[in-house]
Amino acid sequence: MKEKIQEQFKQRFGTDGVVYASAGRINLIGEHTDYNGGFVFPGAIDKYIMAVININGTDKVRVYSMDMDAYCEFGLKEEDAPQEQWARYIFGVCREIIKRGGTVNGFDTVFAGNVPLGAGLSSSAALESCFAFALNDLFNENKIDKFELAKIGQSTEHNYCGVNCGIMDQFASVFGKKDCLMRLDCRSLEHAYFPFHPEGYKLVLLNSKIKHELVDSPYNKRRESCERVAATLGLDTLRDASYTMLADVRDKVSDEDYRRARFVIGEKQRVLDVCDALERGDYETVGRCMYETHDGLSRDYEVSCEELDYLNDVARECGVTGSRIMGGGFGGCTINLVKEDRYDNFIATAKEKFNAKYGHEPEVINVIISDGAHKVID
Ligand code: GLA
After folding, report:
1. Active site residue ranges
2. Are residues 185 and 216 in the same domain?
3. Within this chain, do residues 220 and 124 fall inside the same structural domain, yes or no?
4. Which pick of 141, 186, 193, 238 has the fewest CB atoms within 10 Å?
């Protein structure tokens, strides 16, 4: 990918540039807990967005996306926001740096990636983190700390892309470390690296390649439900909520909001249980928690879909240790923890059955837990 974007950059802009990359992510457990002040357990993966960048001495950004074969040019003032959604991710990062008192001047860039789009692997966070990291290096002497870089990506989603996401994806993309998952407390931002070598198991993603286009921003609606319940409980977030507290306000909240909060309360605890289980090498408990998360995301949080529920059923039938929908939901991947001796049968069965029912095979994505945002040096 590096040679490809460098060659394209030279052709378009006639110079060389510096190469940066940032990663997509998986999340072993802890879904929809980040914006509730809870815990998440992600890791960066060996799928990247990579960009060549060169300062151009003007007040314009000129950007070419190789994957989309699309070009865009924009200025750096708020009123210069481009129409193209893909370019708004980069514009947003520039603006968020400037708003925080940082510097961004004109630059040329070509970027490409191999993070599958719409699969729940956070290609947009990888894009934001790549540019946040790069612009910090090129214009700000790396004075912006890594948490602020993650927050710059998150604010880009909020202010320029209409998604009120939590901090997990950008955190994972910036802080990722090879072979390690990270437990992040999304309230205090305290985090710990957990070496992840599940002896005798494989971690594999099955991409349904389904992305349900939902018109009414259901992600933001989930967040609003949680905030309503927290407010009813007199709390800032659901972080400190318990099942007992929720039961006490049962008739003050809608049934839907009640179920959303019930999921979040269970999920917060599951992250901690999974971390403990991993320290004991107890993968059966890890797997059981993953199935519980899937059930909760499907029934209470209602962010799964028929195709992902089907992949989850097939995993159960094949004796897969743990399986669940991963990411924001409404399509994308399942993440599966499977014993090595069951792997081949699981993959073959899932492909065959899914194809028979939905007319295409799920894509098998093997991931390696990798480093997050970095400068790519030869
Ligand atoms: C998306 C968001 C994250 C997080 C997950 C669900 O990926 O960007 O902040 O809320 O959904 O866990």
Report:
1. 169
2. no
3. no
4. 141
3-class secondary structure, 254: coil
pTM: 0.96
Tokens of 228: 């309503």
pLDDT digits (tens, 9 = 90+) for 252-298: 999 999 999 999 999 999 999 999 999 999 999 999 999 999 999 99
Both tokens assigned to 112: 């490409």
Q: Based on the domain organization, do 88 and 222 belong to the same domain?
A: no
Output the CA 13–ligand 1 centroid distance in Å.
36
Distance 7 CA to ligand 1 centre (A): 35
- Given a contact cutoff of 8 angstroms between Cβ atoms, the answer to whether 304 and 294 are in contact is yes
Q: Residue 338 above 70 pLDDT?
A: yes
**Number of domain units in the chain:** 2
DSSP string, 24-71: EEEESS--S-GGGT-EE-EEEEEEEEEEEEEE-SSSEEEEEETTTTEE
Q: How far is CA 288 from CA 51, 331, 340, in A?
A: 40, 22, 17
205 shares its domain with 185: no
Contact 208, 311 (CB under 8 A): yes
Written as one string, the DSSP assignment of 86-131 is: HHHHHHHHHHHHHHTT-----EEEEEEE-SPTTSSS-HHHHHHHHH
Which residue range(s) make up the domain with 270? 201-366
CATH number of the domain that residue 39 is part of:
3.30.230.10
Contact present, 155 and 138 (Cβ < 8 Å)? no
Q: What is the CA radius of gyration of the chain?
A: 21
Residues 100-144 pLDDT 10s: 999 999 999 999 999 988 889 999 999 999 999 999 999 999 999
Dist. CA 289–CA 328, nearest whole Å: 18
Same domain? For 190 and 205 the reply is no
Mark out the alpha helices in the chain (DSSP H runs). 2-13, 85-99, 123-139, 146-160, 168-175, 218-232, 243-248, 255-280, 283-295, 306-317, 340-358
Burial group, residue 2, by CB count within 10 angstroms (0-12, 13-18, 19+): middle
Check which CATH number belongs to the domain holding 357 and give it. Answer: 3.30.70.890
Give residue 280 CA to ligand 1 midpoint distance, Å.
Answer: 28
- Residues touching ligand 1 (Cβ under 6 Å) are 31-32, 34-35, 122, 165-166, 168-169, 327-328
